[in-house]
C-alpha cells in the first residue's frame, strides 16, 4: 500500500491533520455520522455494525503498519482511524439516542486518554495492531459503561 493512500485512510480523509485534538474530532465526527445514519435508516443491525468495526479495524491495521514501516513512527498523531473503530464499538448494542451518543463520546475519550489496565499494554503490539487494539479495548470499556448506565436509568 502506498504511503499517501495509507495516510488518507489512517487520517480519515485528512481529519487527523486538523490542528488541536484530532482524536477527539475523530470521535465526535464518527459518533455524529453513526447517529445520522442510524436516524435516517431506522436501525443498523448489530451484524452490520460489528462488520463495519471489523473492516475499519483491518483498514487501520494495514494503513498504520505501512505508515510505521515507511516513516519509522509507530503511532503519529494524525492516525485517527483507531478512534473511529473504538468509538463505533462503544455504541454496539446500545440504544441509539442523542444522550447515549453524548455519553458514549465522553466515556470513550475518557478511557482512551486514561488508558486503564491493560489498554496501555496493547499499544506495544507492533505492525499496526497496537495502534488499533488499545482503542478497541477503550471502546469495549466505554460500551460496558454505557450498558450499565442504561440499565440503571
What's the helix and strand layout?
Elements: H1 3-10, H2 22-41, H3 46-71, H4 81-90, H5 98-114, H6 119-122, H7 129-152
Helix pairs in contact: 1-3, 2-4, 2-5, 3-4, 3-7, 4-5, 4-7, 5-7
Task: Give a brief outline of the structure.
The protein is an all-alpha fold. The protein contains 7 helices and no strands. The protein has helices at 3-10, 22-41, 46-71, 81-90, 98-114, 119-122, 129-152.
Name its key features.
single chain; 153 residues; mainly alpha; 7 helices; 0% strand; globular
What is the number of domains?
A: 1
The total strand number stands at 0
Biggest beta sheet attributes? none
Taken in chain order, the helices and strands follow as HHHHHHH
What is the radius of gyration computed over CA atoms, rounded to a whole number of angstroms? Answer: 15 Å
Q: What is the number of helical segments per DSSP (H or I, 4+ residues)?
A: 7
Taking pLDDT < 50 over at least 5 consecutive residues as the criterion, the unreliable ranges are none
Strand content: under 5%
Give the fraction of residues assigned to helices: over 70%
Distance between the termini: 47 Å
Outline type: globular
Class from secondary-structure proportions? mainly alpha
Mean pLDDT: 95
Amino acid at each position: 500500500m502506498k504511503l499517501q493512500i495509507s495516510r488518507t485512510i489512517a487520517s480519515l480523509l485528512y481529519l487527523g491533520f486538523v490542528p488541536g485534538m484530532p482524536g477527539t474530532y475523530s470521535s465526535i465526527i464518527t459518533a455524529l455520522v453513526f447517529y445520522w445514519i442510524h436516524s435516517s435508516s431506522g436501525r443498523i443491525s448489530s451484524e452490520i455494525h460489528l462488520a463495519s468495526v471489523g473492516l475499519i479495524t483491518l483498514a487501520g491495521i494495514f494503513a498504520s503498519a505501512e505508515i510505521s514501516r515507511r516513516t519509522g513512527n509507530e503511532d503519529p498523531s494524525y492516525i485517527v482511524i483507531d478512534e473511529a473503530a473504538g468509538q463505533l464499538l462503544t455504541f454496539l448494542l446500545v440504544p441509539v439516542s442523542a444522550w447515549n451518543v453524548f455519553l458514549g463520546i465522553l466515556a470513550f475519550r475518557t478511557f482512551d486518554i486514561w488508558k486503564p489496565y491493560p489498554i496501555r499494554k496493547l499499544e506495544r503490539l507492533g505492525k499496526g495492531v497496537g495502534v488499533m487494539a488499545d482503542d478497541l479495548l477503550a471502546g469495549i470499556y466505554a460500551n460496558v459503561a454505557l450498558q450499565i448506565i442504561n440499565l440503571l436509568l
